[in-house]
Amino acid sequence: MLASNMKNAPYQRYYNLAEGVTLELGQHTLIMGILNTTPDSFSDGGRNRTIASAVEHAREMVNAGADIIDIGGESTRPGSEAVPLEEELQRVIPVIRAVREALPHVPLSIDTYKAETARQALEAGAHIINDIWGLKGDVQMAAIAAQFGCPVILSHNRPARNYNELVPDVIADLEESIRIAQEAGIADASIWLDPGIGFAKTTEDNRHLMAHLNQIAEMGYPVLLGTSRKKFIRDTLQLPVDQITYGTAATVTLGIAQGCQIVRVHDIQEMKQNALVADAIIYR
């Protein structure tokens, strides 16, 4: 059953990021466009094989309505192998520099759990850290985020699915990530949360968590939702990854209605339209 509290007041936050880039929360749902530089991503692996193609893809996403571009060099799909640091750096740093030059006013996030990658990415022009391990994958990550004073996205994740009660356990794990951030000196205003849809969760777990996203939003931090083309949608619809745009749109709507303020997606134009209609109701 969907949680009954479907409307949360949006957090009003304004960020002065590096190099004069700004970002505002609370006016509309922010669209984060996914720019993978990996050859093996479950959805679009190999699309951005060159720097030029990556820049063009970023430009297309911004023109379609993306507010942030999220650049990653390691697939996080189930069963994927870890990418060595040097290889990840070779994939993402030149792309960050090129996208920064081509789109100087667009906020960029680095999708990594490695502190050294985050450091070099921020030095190259990224503005936000998107850590799928919520500062728990690399003990130096919190210090890097504090040093740069940048927003950091703390995603829920576990090495294995071992929950006593799903939603309370997700909240407790996120609270631990928040504590790590605070102890490192990261300002509360720089903390965003991600419920970690698809990470160490079954299809039924993901559905259950989707129905209770309002409890994550009620923790007092902006929430990013990343459901785009995820396996639980494919399982629900029994369709391949290139045929579930409408299924993703349903999850985006549910997330916005429960207080999620940022959505991380592949299909920018479609999800932007979806968000505009939801925002017209929720942000009125």
TrEMBL record:
<keyword id="KW-0460">Magnesium</keyword>
<comment type="similarity">
    <text>Belongs to the DHPS family.</text>
</comment>
<protein>
    <recommendedName>
        <fullName>Dihydropteroate synthase</fullName>
        <ecNumber>2.5.1.15</ecNumber>
    </recommendedName>
</protein>
<dbReference type="InterPro" id="IPR045031">
    <property type="entry name" value="DHP_synth-like"/>
</dbReference>
<dbReference type="InterPro" id="IPR011005">
    <property type="entry name" value="Dihydropteroate_synth-like_sf"/>
</dbReference>
<keyword id="KW-0289">Folate biosynthesis</keyword>
<comment type="function">
    <text>Catalyzes the condensation of para-aminobenzoate (pABA) with 6-hydroxymethyl-7,8-dihydropterin diphosphate (DHPt-PP) to form 7,8-dihydropteroate (H2Pte), the immediate precursor of folate derivatives.</text>
</comment>
<comment type="pathway">
    <text>Cofactor biosynthesis; tetrahydrofolate biosynthesis; 7,8-dihydrofolate from 2-amino-4-hydroxy-6-hydroxymethyl-7,8-dihydropteridine diphosphate and 4-aminobenzoate: step 1/2.</text>
</comment>
<keyword id="KW-0808">Transferase</keyword>
<dbReference type="InterPro" id="IPR006390">
    <property type="entry name" value="DHP_synth_dom"/>
</dbReference>
<dbReference type="InterPro" id="IPR000489">
    <property type="entry name" value="Pterin-binding_dom"/>
</dbReference>
<dbReference type="Pfam" id="PF00809">
    <property type="entry name" value="Pterin_bind"/>
</dbReference>
<feature type="domain" description="Pterin-binding">
    <location>
        <begin position="29"/>
        <end position="277"/>
    </location>
</feature>
<keyword id="KW-0479">Metal-binding</keyword>
<dbReference type="GO" id="GO:0004156">
    <property type="term" value="F:dihydropteroate synthase activity"/>
</dbReference>
